[in-house]
Design a protein that fits this description.
heterodimer, A: about 220 residues, Alpha-Beta Plaits, two-stranded antiparallel ribbon, 6 helices, B: about 475 residues, mainly alpha, 2 domains, 3-stranded antiparallel beta sheet
């Protein structure tokens, strides 16, 4: 039994992009008619683009990028939107009281293949309900120059404390130490919609929903 | 007094050419961007507080100039000091000296500026009384065209000297290429003009322009020579499609590879100024120089064979205002009189306008055509252009003699033909202008292509954000 596939319709765009090889005939061999034609094509582009430039009607570089005309993105002023799941710069998500959600478990820095994350863990003070259950990052440093933006830290984090959904990339600075992002800066970033979205609800120690297991019972 | 006028003329020509050279560097970048659907350079900016002056990138030549002045003036240690230093000067000088013989306006009769045109001979006759004719040429020389060929040939020496003295094999190769290319095309350049010289009967530029204003523009009587001369002139300026001496892909940047700073700028600007001077030559020899259709020394004549439109217009107007002097003159002589200074000024503006358009066309050619291979370049010159220009000489000679042997009986036909040529020019220009205005006003419908996740994401709020600046 033969299977016939429906013939694929040739889109208008594919037709427009089809280029025919030049044929050898009298006009191509005399050269001058072809020169005139070539200059005419340049002129069409020139006048059409100049008109759009003067009238301020340049095509939208994203939505109309396949239309004829200048579709350059004037970079620092205009930016190409990144796709939905683009891994941008890191941010640290926050708890309800504004502290970082990070519990300094060092999972991310362990998972990091580029070893660009440095965390100095600190114990909560005596009497704090969180003491014994979790720690906090005294320092949380990411070297954005070493980072390879693989997203392993996000995968490794057990508390949804580190995310890469800011939708921006590190801006070029003029010295290397400016690429060392510290905790306060990482906490100040928002996601690409301008919010501070996180998933997985927090269960603070002392809440009824908290399992109440702490490290005092641990044998290691 | 004469010296003052000469200095003024030199200043005008040099200022125009230098500025056009600088503007052409901008035009080359920006025009090529528009041709290739890019934006082009527009970032050079003067900031005064909040006010930003960009002028669509016109400040880039200025920024270039400042950069060239402050760059290190490097000379390779084993280069020939003298020749290495002289070459850029020669390159610019050979371009600028050519300007001396190019007329940019009709001869000015200083005492009769507000009267309707005095003939040049009349003006010269009164020279003892202080009414001397002021030719709008820096040096009105009898050998005009020959002088141009003699001087523009020196450009070869500049290129060869620069390449040979810079102690660099690429420069040397390029100097050889430049030398042979320019010598070859110089031959065609000269030969293609012989036909025009035969018709004009002179090598003086101002007389050539006068012949064209009385008969028809050179492009109509010598269309073949125009194409040949245009091609050879582009080859002489060493620009694409004939940029074999520069050949970025093969020879770094040719004979000026080792130059930096202001010396490089002299080669670079010299090349663009050469475009201006070659445009001036094309305009003077083929596009009527300062002459505009129907505009003559004493005023406007509009004729078509035996029909004199101005005379008829004057006759029609005479019924309404019989005492008006101008209308009377129109009705009797067929000339709408214009003041002398106005005619000359329009002519000067017309000349520079034509030069601008020709430069613009040359840039279009430069950005439309692919480059030649070196053997193709030589074959085009010696096997195509040179025989074609020789054939043109012969055809012109035969045609000229044939017309002469027919005697005065063909003169009315020739008059109609030359009038038609003038009408053609006079009608084409407004047509192009109107067409441009209509095209500019027309709206364009665009198709929105929602393709890719970036397009979908651009629609979302906060789709693209600007990254934070630390410190």
């Amino acid at each position: 039994m033969t299977v016939t596939f429906p013939k694929k319709a040739v889109s208008a765009r594919a037709k427009a992009m089809h280029v025919e090889a030049a044929e050898r005939n009298i006009t191509t061999q005399v050269y001058i008619p072809e020169v005139v034609r070539g200059v005419a094509v340049s002129m069409q582009h020139f006048f059409a683009n100049t008109k759009e430039m003067l009238r301020g009607e340049r095509p939208d570089p994203v939505h109309e990028r396949l239309d004829p005309g200048i579709s350059t993105i004037s970079y620092p002023e205009q930016k190409r939107p990144y796709p939905e799941r683009f891994r941008g710069m890191h941010r640290l998500t926050l708890r309800a009281n504004g502290d970082p959600r990070c519990v300094a478990c060092l999972c991310c820095s362990t998972a990091c293949p580029a070893q660009c994350i440095f965390i100095e863990a600190g114990e909560y003070a005596e009497g704090d309900p969180r003491r014994g259950h979790e720690r906090f990052p005294v320092r949380f440093v990411i070297d954005e120059l070493r980072c390879i933006f693989c997203g392993f830290c996000v995968e490794a984090c057990p508390c949804d404390a580190i995310r890469m959904d800011t939708g921006v990339h590190p801006v070029p600075y003029d010295s290397r130490d400016q690429f060392i992002y510290k905790k306060d800066l990482l906490m100040s970033f928002v996601d690409r919609d301008g919010g501070r979205r996180d998933d997985n609800p927090r269960h603070e120690p002392g809440d009824a929903s908290h399992p109440g297991i702490d490290r005092t019972a641990a044998t290691h | 007094m004469v010296i003052l006028y000469t200095v003024l003329k030199i200043a005008l020509m040099i200022a125009f050419t230098l500025n056009m050279g600088a503007i052409l560097t901008w035009a080359d970048r920006r025009q090529s961007a528009m041709i290739q659907d890019r934006v082009g350079p527009n970032r050079a900016v003067i900031k005064i507080g909040k006010f930003e002056l960009r002028l669509a990138g016109l400040l880039h030549p200025l920024a270039d100039g400042i950069k060239f002045v402050f760059k290190e003036d490097f000379r390779p240690p084993r280069a020939d000091k003298l020749l290495f230093g002289i070459a850029p000067i020669l390159a610019v000088a050979s371009v600028l000296i050519v300007l001396a013989v190019i007329p940019f306006g009709d001869t000015l009769c200083l005492e009769g500026l507000t009267k309707a045109g005095i003939p040049v001979e009349e003006c010269a006759r009164n020279a003892e009384k202080g009414v001397f004719p002021l030719a709008l040429t820096v040096a009105p020389m009898g050998i005009g065209l020959l002088f141009v060929f003699a001087i523009s040939g020196q450009g070869i020496i500049a290129a060869a000297m620069a390449g040979a003295s810079s102690d660099n094999k690429f420069s040397l190769m390029s100097a050889l290429r430049a030398g042979s290319q320019m010598v070859s095309y110089e031959v065609t350049l000269g030969m293609s003009l012989i036909g025009a010289i035969m018709l004009y009967g002179t090598v003086r530029f101002d007389e050539m322009v006068r012949w064209q204003s009385e008969n028809a523009w050179g492009i109509f009587v010598q269309p073949f020579a125009f194409v040949l001369f245009f091609v050879a002139a582009v080859a002489e300026t060493k620009r694409v499609p004939f940029d074999l001496p520069e050949a970025e892909s093969e020879l770094v940047s040719g004979y000026f590879t080792e130059y930096s700073g202001m010396k490089f700028a002299m080669f670079y600007l010299g090349e663009y100024m050469e475009v201006v001077t070659s445009s001036m030559l094309i305009v003077t020899i083929f596009l009527g120089g300062w002459a505009l259709p129907f505009l003559h020394r004493d005023g406007i004549h509009v004729t078509l064979g035996d029909v004199d439109l101005i005379k008829q217009l004057g006759g029609m107007l005479q019924g309404g205002m019989p005492d008006n002097e101008t209308v009377k003159a129109m009705a009797t002589t067929g000339v709408a009189p214009l003041m002398h200074w106005g005619v000359v000024l329009i002519g000067v503006l017309g000349f520079f306008g034509k030069v601008l358009i020709t430069c613009f066309l040359q840039t279009f050619v430069r950005w439309s055509l692919p480059r030649f291979r070196y053997d193709q370049l030589m074959r085009l010159c010696w096997k195509v252009l040179l025989p074609a220009s020789l054939a043109n000489i012969m055809l012109t000679g035969v045609g000229y003699l044939a017309l002469k042997s027919l005697g005065p009986s063909v003169e009315p036909t020739l008059k109609v033909l030359s009038d038609l040529a003038q009408w053609l020019v006079a009608l084409i220009v407004p047509f192009i202008v109107i067409r441009g205005v209509i095209g500019f006003a027309k709206n364009k419908r665009r198709e929105v292509w929602k393709v890719g996740s970036s397009s979908a994401f651009a629609d979302r709020p906060g789709g693209t954000t600007v990254g934070p600046m630390q410190a």
